[in-house]
Amino acid sequence: MLKGSRREAMGLALVTPSFLFLLVFFIVPAALLFVCSFWLAHSFRLIPAFSFDNYSRALSASGFYVLTWNALKNGLCTAAFTVALSFPTAYFIVYRTRGNLLFYLILVSWFSSYLVRIYAWRVILGSNGLINTTLMQLGLIDHPIEVLLFSPFATILTLIHIMLPFGLLLLVSALRDVRREYIEAARDLGASPFEVLTRVMLPMCYKGIIGAFMFTFVISAGDFVTPQLLGGREGMTTGILIANQFRSSGNWPFGAAMAFLLLAAFLLVYFVFVRLLHLLRLAPGRRFHD
Amino acid sequence: MLRIYVWLYVAFLYAPIAIITLFSFHSSPSLTFPFEGFSLRWYARIFTNTTFMDSLWNSILVGTATAATTTVLGSLTALGLARLKGRVQTLFGLLSFGPVALPGLFLGIALVMLFSQIGLARSLFTVTIAHVLFTLPFFLEAVRSRIEYFDLSLEEAARDLGATPAQAFRLVTLPIIGPTIGGAAILSFALSFDEFIITVFVSGNNTTLPLTIWSMMRRAVSPDINAASVLSLSLSIGIILLGGLLVWYQRRSALNARAKDIQE
Amino acid sequence: MVDTPHGRPFGSPNIFRNDVLSRRGFLGTSLALGAGATLGSWPGPMPAQAAVGGDLKIMAWEGFTLDNELKGWREANNVQVDAAIISTQDDVHAKLIGGSPVRLDLAEYSQGFEHFYVDELKIVKPLDIAKVPNFTPENIQPEFYNAPTWYWNDTHYAIPWVWGLNALVYNPEMTQPIKSYKDLLAPELKGKLTFCDDTIATWPMIARIAGLGPKFPNLTKDEMKTAFEGLGPYRDQCRVFGSSNGDVISLFSSKEIAACFCVWSGTPVETAKRGVKTIYAVPEEGAVMWCDAWFMPISAQNMDTGYAFMNEAISAKVQAEVCKAVTGGAVNKHAPELMDAHTRALFDYSDLQQVFKKSPLQGQPPRTSDVYATYDEWTQAWTDFKSSF
Fold it and tell me: What coarse category fits the chief subcellular location reported for this protein (chain C) (predicted)?
């Protein structure tokens, strides 16, 4: 008991610096902005008020829904594919390799500028790009496949490419805690590989999967540069609406209101995703927590 | 099977980077096939471009400061969280997730409001604050599961055996969580180095590399942006190798020290 | 070159000048920490009165920082220029609004931003034109000198320096010659058209196509709606929006598009470097003129060097060089003589009046109005247009 409270006190002391940092640079500004979302504004001049105008204006514009749907779609597809594609690789790194070379090789790919990578995908996917030229030279197609570029496909593919190393990092970190012995024990008890995966591994790294999914989701759904450069006509997302308010129109309160609405949509996705994992029985039941 | 998959995965990651690298040596300003020939002109161009070199240096500064600050704050927090239980832990966990739950530009603008309220002029310092805020949740997420399962009793056993808290940390905790923290620190550097959306708002006169690349791209897209990307990639690899060497060296001396302790 | 004394007089840095004090006062709530940081960010010795030299903080578009053109001048006067790059005009006021504006000695604004910057945001210092001796009716083209874009109420707010025309650009291999905007609706251009996401440079053309050109920027809400509805068929031809000039150039170079609605006149020069021939055409509807001007932000400190910099920027020699570099037009009458044939041929300097008549320098929609569609509403309509609701 004594040891426990010493532990707690030490714990509190250790989190204090971050807490102060987050208090000053996150909670206070976010609160300022939340208050601001009820204000009115006129080209960069804020008028203190208490009004729901900004929220009702955003919710009554059909455009807001379409763009938010685009953003959520990008985010969900990217997150799902990133986690699904990275999981086998994370498994390989954790259980089949000794050194960290492969792991670092993958992480390093992240250091090439993300803006530049967007243009590299154009070179690959374009009408006269690598894929189309190759396919045409092989005689497999007569006309370039135009839907490769400037489509949701291009956006999501690129976002997956950007997020993969990141998802991998989080999954590797989560899988490192599923000790080999547990897996071996499950196998010895006659579990099939599928059962090992769904009954042992997934429930044990459940938080890591949620983390990887949510971080990937939030970043890719909030991105508005990639969709704009690669998404073609359907390439607009809510981010650009918000950015417009802050940068050119100067209606910060309206932008803040839209940002909070987007946050609400993100939270909804979070709860749905967690619920889904529970329904699929991939989340740990009570037995792991007690 | 799995091995083939993993190599395909790596190939997918590196294919665009191979293209970027190839075109950074292109003799023509075009970024499309056919490839016409090799030249170093784009590297020459960025090396002589003072705006570019300044922003590269600024990005390195900010990235390093961000990684260092985030690592200190994040490691303390992670170790603290491992000692906390129940509601406090959940609440703080949620709080630390906050900065990335909001769209990036939201953070940028919220910080600008704060900075103008307290009269803090925008500079690389404010960029660093914003980047720490942005990277901290990632750092915590990357080390969290490692630390959550970290057996605190190991550290406490060391304390019971007479080690000071610092010794217990250095000799017991660090070797266990060190590699994870190293990875997370690199992650923080990478996130900061490539951050664009928040930086637009919180930067002062000194621009960072992504901002410079963005403005270069707005006028005309040339292979100079590829050269910039390849250069920063090579620099990062260099930094990571250096960091890896340091970690390796430290670990070796820690092992030696421990061996010596045991002998005595 | 203007005669300026070199070196700086001695004396304590005058950080308690009134304007500084009033700015600090404006912060009101400034904490000790914040104020300290603000003080700390000031460079050591303050630039003295009537002395050129020291560091000059400017904010300009990529390619417009006079990095090469003013090399000699910088060395002769011991000036270090520290340039921040503008990606969109919004970057400039983003730095200057709020309680703690970033120090900038000079920055650029495009046409249309003058009243917004001067009257609404109040981020512009009036200029003492006597300190820019090159800015005289003898040197500057009359259409630019004292235009209402930078001069009103007997006050100069900015110095115009480079201009250009945005109009149609097309790839002759992929389409018939385009003489009018209607030609963009040809079936062969389906999925081959792009718009450049440059609002101020595109809106006037949207109004003009609807026959409302002369009224721009003051269109009623209904007129604006009509104008955007008329643009529907063009949108259906469109494959993607170019996010900037650079993006449009890259789209032309990879032959993803055959034509761009309204874009920078320098586009063909850049695509030619990338092996794709494109043609810049001013169709019968005219083009959209832009002009960038230097202004002195409220946070300017090294003002004398700022004035000297502007004075150099509009000298004939520098104008000729920068116009070649950015494929732009000069405001200095004597610059065309010094240009190479290609740069001179970009615009009809012999009859600028006609150029102005066909492609007037127009402002931007009002920020507030009960009668006309506001800037906000235009932005909204443009966003809706881009996402086709």
Answer: periplasm
Residues C176 and C216 in one domain: yes
Q: Is residue C332 part of a domain?
A: yes
For residue B113, give the nearest of A29, C187, C120, A177 by alpha carbon: A29
User: Does A127 sit within 8 Å of C255, measured CB to CB?
Assistant: yes
The residue segments making up the domain with residue C333 are 18-156+290-348
Of B14 and A246, the one with more pLDDT? B14
Closest Cα in chain C to B215: C87
Is residue C217 reached through a cis peptide bond, with omega within 30 degrees of 0 on the bond before it?
yes
Distance from CA of C199 to the nearest CA of B (A): 14
* Closest Cβ–Cβ partner in C62, C99, C250 for B119: C99
Q: Which CATH number fits the domain that encloses residue C378?
A: 3.40.190.10
Q: pLDDT (tens digit, 9 = 90+) per residue, C51-78?
A: 788 899 999 988 898 988 899 999 999 9
Model confidence at A1: pLDDT above 60: no
Q: In terms of domains, do C330 and C217 share one?
A: no
On whether residue A63 sits in a domain, the answer given is yes
Tell me whether residue A80 is exposed, middle or buried, using C-beta atoms within 10 angstroms of its C-beta: 0 to 12, 13 to 18, 19 or more: middle
Mutation pick from C274, C276, C322, C326 vs chain B, by most beta carbons of B within 10 Å, is: C274
Residue among C127, C131, C164 nearest C146 (CA): C127
Work out how many domains chain C is built from and give that number.
Answer: 2
Cα–Cα distance, B194 to A111 (Å, whole number): 8
Residue whose token pair is 């890896």: B244
Contacts of B143 in chain A (CB under 8 A): 173
Instruction: Assess if residue A13 is contained within a domain.
Output: no
Q: Which residues of B touch C255 (CB under 8 A)?
A: 32
- Given pLDDT bands bounded at 50, 70 and 90, which one contains residue B64? very high
Residue C310 belongs to some domain of the structure: yes
Of the candidates B80, B156, B230, the beta carbon closest to that of A11 is on B80
- Give pTM, 2 decimals: 0.82
Residue C353 inside a domain? The answer is no
Q: Which helix (H) or strand (E) holds A143?
A: none
> pLDDT tens-digit profile of C151-208?
999 999 999 999 999 889 999 998 888 888 888 898 888 888 999 888 888 899 999 9
Nearest-angstrom CA–CA distance, A50 and A67: 27
Task: Name the CA radius of gyration of chain B, rounded.
Answer: 22
- A10 inside domain: no
For the segment C94-110, the average pLDDT, to the nearest whole number, is 85
Same domain, C274 and C375: yes
CA-based nearest residue to C260, from C358, C326, C192, C346: C192
B 50-69 → A contacts, CB under 8 A? none
pLDDT over 90 at C291, yes or no = yes
A214 vs A170, A206, A221, A236, B102, CA distance in Å?
Answer: 11, 12, 10, 21, 12
Judge: A120–B19 Cβ closer than 8 Å, yes or no: yes
User: Looking at CA atoms only, how far is residue B69 from chain C in angstroms?
Assistant: 19
Phi-psi region of B37 (alpha: psi -120 to 50; beta: other; left: phi over 0): left
Domain total in chain A: 1
Please give the C-alpha separations between residue A232 and each of B104, C192, C193, in angstroms, as whole numbers.
Answer: 22, 12, 12
